[in-house]
Design a protein that fits this description.
This protein is mostly helical. The chain has one domain. The protein is built from 2 helices and no strands. The protein is rod-shaped, with a radius of gyration of 20 Å. The mean pLDDT is 89. This is Amino acid permease/ SLC12A domain-containing protein. InterPro entries: AA-permease/SLC12A_dom. Keywords: Membrane, Transmembrane, Transmembrane helix. Its main location: membrane.
């Protein structure tokens, strides 16, 4: 909360855009990590030959 107040004091006209762009960037970064983890997991499952044991099949 105090960080928002300080940001509002130092950059009053651009604080909303600043916070929105940081949250959007972090959102995209987290989804990128999820996608990379899923791709690595699927690759390891394919190498181990266990793709028939998966409950949720990829289309």
């Amino acid at each position: 909360m105090s960080a928002a107040v300080l940001l509002n004091v130092f950059i009053p006209k651009g604080v909303f855009v600043f916070i929105a762009s940081i949250s959007t960037t972090l959102f995209l970064f987290m989804w990128s990590l999820i996608i990379l983890a899923q791709m690595k997991y699927r690759k390891e499952v394919d190498v181990a030959g266990q793709e028939n044991q998966l409950i949720f099949k990829m289309p």
